[in-house]
Write a structure and sequence with these properties.
By secondary structure, the chain is of the alpha+beta class. Helices cover about 55% and strands about 10% of the residues. The structure holds protoporphyrin IX containing FE (HEM). The site of protoporphyrin IX containing FE has 23 residues, from helix 6, helix 13, helix 14 and helix 20. InterPro entries: Cyt_P450, Cyt_P450_CS, Cyt_P450_E_CYP52_fungi, Cyt_P450_E_grp-IV, Cyt_P450_sf.
C-alpha cells in the first residue's frame, strides 16, 4: 500500500515535518544554552510509568494537603532527591528547591527572570484583579512604589494607641486563672482587627463580643476567599473541577465592603484633620489614587493579615513548651520596659525579643511554600550534575517551587539541632542569614515587614508584662493547616496566668 497522496495528507505531512524541525531547533538551542552556562542535569523525581502525565502526582499532592502532611511530604522528597529536583506534572516542568543559594537567586539576583502573576493571577483575580499580588513588570513596579511611599515611615504608621486598644480587647478574651483557651483563634481575630484598623482606619472588631453584622460578614468572606485561593493553588488545573459559587459571592461582597470605604474616602477629599491620624487608605487617597486603586491595594493588605497571626500563634505554641524562654523573655521585657506599654524605641532595642520572634518564624514561616514561573530561558545556579554543584537550565514557563519550611530547617544555615527551639542561636546569626526568608527577599520582599515586626513585638511584650506563665494544653505536636498562611490545625491551646 502506497502513501496516501492528495492535497490534505500532503499538508498534514508538511505540518508534521515542520513541527519536528521546530522541536529539533528548540532542542538544539536549549542544548547550546546548557553548554554556554555549563549546566548539568537535574535530578528528576521518579514516578510510575503509568503516570506519565503526572495526574497521580497532583492527586498525591492534594491528598497530602487534605491530610495535613504537605510540608512533611515535600521535606521527605528533598531528603530523597536533594535540595533541588524536578517533577513533571500535567505537562509542566516543576523545579522544587530549598537550596538557599537558589532561593536567593530566584528572589534577588535573577528576579527579572521570574514572575508571580501567572500562577497567582487566576487565583486572586476575582478578589483583587489589579492588586499587587497579581501583577508583574511595570504594573507591579507602579503598585510597589505606591505601597513604598505609604509604608516607608514605620514610626508614623505604627499606631500605638490602636495597638494598646486592641491589646486591651484581646485581654478580655483571656480566661482567668490560666484556664485553657485557643490563643490562635484570638490571634487570628486580633490580626484582622489590627490590619483593618491600619488599612481602613476602622477595625472590623472581630475580638469584640458583638461586632457589627456587616463587619462580621466581611471577616467571614475574607476567610472563605483565603481558604479557596490556597486550596485551589494546591489543586493546580484540577481546581476547575470544583464549584466556586460561594467563593465568587464572597469576593463580590468583600469588594463591595472595601469599595464603600474607598468611595467615602475619595468623596471626603484630602483631609486637613491631623488629629484623625494615619491610616493606609487615607494616605493613598492623599497621593491621588482613585477609588478602584484604593480598594485593590487595601484588599491586598487585608489578605496579607494572617501572617501576623501565624507568627504570634507559633510563638505562643513554642513558648508554652519552653518555660525557660518564657522566664528569660519576661525578665528582660520587665527590665527594659517596666510595667507600662512600650514605646517604639524600646521595642527595637530588645534583641532577645527579636530572637524569640525570628526563631518562631523559622519554625512556622507564614508562607511555607511559594512559587514563581520563568518568563524566559534562564539558569538556576545549583542543582545540576552529580553533586548538584552545576547550574541547571530553566526553560521559559517552567515552574519553580521554593520551600522556606525546609530551608528554615537546615543545619548548614542555622547551626546544630535545627529542630530545637532555641532563640539564643540568633546571637550568632543575622536576620539576613542564607535561607531565612519569612518575609522573602529581594525587590518583592514583604513591604509590611517592619510594621509587622513592631506589631508582633508589641503584643508579645505586653503579654509577657501581664502574665508569667504560659501553660501548655496542646494535645500533641503542631499539625499543619495551610491557609493563606500557616496555622495549627488543632488551634493553639494555652493558659495564661
Ligand atoms: C509576620 C507578618 C508577615 C509576614 C511573615 C509576611 C510575609 C510576606 C511574604 C513571604 C511575602 C512575599 C510573597 C511573595 O512574593 O510570594 C509578602 C508580601 C507582601 N506582604 Fe507581607 N507579611 C507579613 C505582614 C504583612 C503586613 C502587616 C503587611 C501590610 C501592612 C504586608 C503586606 C504585604 C504585601 C502588600 C505583599 C506583596 C508585595 C509584593 O508583591 O511586592 N505583609 N509578605
Amino acid at each position: 500500500m502506497g502513501l496516501p497522496t492528495g492535497p490534505l495528507p500532503l499538508a498534514v505531512l508538511g505540518f508534521l515535518v515542520l513541527m519536528w524541525l521546530f522541536k529539533l531547533r528548540r532542542a538544539h538551542s536549549l542544548y547550546a544554552l546548557e553548554q554556554q552556562y555549563g549546566c548539568g542535569n537535574v535530578v528528576k523525581e521518579k514516578v510510575s510509568r503509568l503516570d506519565f502525565l503526572g495526574v497521580l502526582k497532583v492527586l498525591e499532592f492534594a491528598h497530602h494537603f487534605r491530610h495535613k502532611t504537605a510540608l512533611e511530604y515535600t521535606d521527605t522528597l528533598f531528603k530523597k532527591y536533594g535540595n533541588t529536583y524536578m517533577s513533571q506534572i500535567l505537562g509542566y516542568r516543576i523545579h522544587f528547591t530549598c537550596d538557599p543559594a537558589n532561593i536567593k537567586h530566584i528572589l534577588s539576583t535573577g528576579f527579572a527572570d521570574y514572575d508571580s502573576s501567572k500562577l497567582r493571577g487566576p487565583l486572586f483575580n476575582p478578589i483583587t484583579p489589579h492588586g499587587i499580588f497579581t501583577v508583574d513588570g511595570l504594573d507591579w513596579r507602579v503598585m510597589r512604589d505606591q505601597l513604598r511611599t505609604q509604608l516607608s515611615n514605620n514610626r508614623r504608621i505604627c499606631d500605638f494607641v490602636m495597638f494598646e486598644q486592641q491589646f486591651q480587647t484581646f485581654l478580655q478574651r483571656v480566661p482567668p486563672d490560666g484556664q485553657r483557651f485557643d490563643i490562635q483563634g484570638c490571634f487570628i481575630s486580633l490580626a484582622i482587627d489590627i490590619q483593618s484598623g491600619f488599612a481602613l482606619g476602622d477595625s472590623v472588631g472581630s475580638l469584640h463580643p458583638s461586632p457589627a453584622p456587616a463587619k462580621k460578614h466581611f471577616a467571614e468572606d475574607l476567610h472563605v476567599i483565603k481558604e479557596t485561593i490556597v486550596r485551589d493553588g494546591f489543586r493546580g488545573p484540577l481546581r476547575h473541577l470544583s464549584r466556586k459559587l460561594e467563593f465568587r459571592r464572597s469576593c463580590t461582597r468583600a469588594r463591595r465592603f472595601v469599595m464603600d470605604y474607598a468611595e467615602r474616602e475619595v468623596a471626603k477629599g484630602i483631609s486637613q484633620d491631623n488629629a484623625e491620624g494615619y491610616y493606609f487608605m487615607k494616605g493613598l487617597n492623599e497621593k491621588g489614587a482613585d477609588a478602584a486603586q484604593l480598594a485593590n491595594q487595601t484588599l491586598s493588605i487585608l489578605l496579607a493579615n494572617d501572617s501576623i497571626a501565624t507568627t504570634l500563634s507559633g510563638t505562643f505554641f513554642l513558648l508554652s513548651q519552653h518555660k525557660r524562654v518564657v522566664s528569660k523573655l519576661r525578665q528582660i521585657v520587665l527590665e527594659e520596659i517596666g510595667p507600662n506599654p512600650p514605646t517604639y524605641d524600646q521595642l527595637t532595642k530588645i534583641p532577645y525579643l527579636t530572637y524569640v520572634i525570628h526563631e518562631s518564624m523559622r519554625f512556622f514561616p507564614a508562607a511555607p511554600l511559594n512559587a514563581r514561573t520563568a518568563n524566559k530561558h534562564t539558569v538556576l545556579p545549583f542543582g545540576g550534575g552529580l553533586d548538584g554543584s552545576k547550574p541547571i537550565l530553566i526553560r521559559k514557563d517552567d515552574i519553580l517551587v521554593f520551600s522556606s519550611w525546609s530551608s528554615h530547617r537546615s543545619e548548614a544555615s542555622f547551626g546544630s539541632n535545627p529542630e530545637e527551639f532555641r532563640p539564643e542561636r540568633w546571637e550568632n546569626l543575622g536576620a539576613d542569614v542564607a535561607g531565612f526568608i519569612p518575609f522573602n527577599k529581594g525587590p518583592r520582599i514583604c513591604p509590611g515587614q517592619r510594621y509587622a515586626m513592631i506589631a508582633i513585638s508589641y503584643m508579645v511584650a505586653r503579654l509577657m508584662q501581664t502574665f508569667s506563665n504560659v501553660t501548655d494544653y496542646n494535645p500533641g505536636p503542631w499539625v499543619e493547616r495551610i491557609s493563606m498562611t500557616l496555622e495549627n490545625d488543632n488551634g493553639v491551646l494555652v493558659g495564661l496566668s
